[in-house]
Amino acid sequence: MNPAGDEESRSRSGVRDGRHAVVVGGSLAGLLAAHVLAGHADRVTIVERDRFPDGTKPRPGVAQGRHPHVLLEGGQLALESLLPGFLAQLRAAGAPRVGLPSDMVLRQDERWFRRVPATTHMYTGSRAQLEELLRRRVLADPVIGVLEGTEAVGLAGDASRVRGVLLRDRSDGARGEPRTLAADLVVDASGSGTRAPQWLTAIGAQAPREETIDTGLAYASRVYRGKDGVLGGDTVGYYVYPTPAQVHGGGALPLEDGTHLVIVSGLRGDEPPTDDDAFASYARRLPHPPLHRWLDEAEPLSPAFGYRRTANVRRRYDLPGRRPAGFLATGDALCTFNPVYGQGMAVAAMSAAALRDALADPRRTPTTARVQRALLAASRQAWDISAGADRAMPGATGTAVAGRPVDRAVGWYLGRVQERYPSDPVVGRAFRAVLTLSAPVTALFAPPVARAVLFGAPLPAPAEPPAAPEEQGTAALP
Ligand SMILES: Cc1cc2nc3c(=O)[nH]c(=O)nc-3n(C[C@H](O)[C@H](O)[C@H](O)COP(=O)(O)OP(=O)(O)OC[C@H]3O[C@@H](n4cnc5c(N)ncnc54)[C@H](O)[C@@H]3O)c2cc1C
Question: pLDDT tens across 116-125, in order?
Answer without folding.
Answer: 999 999 999 9
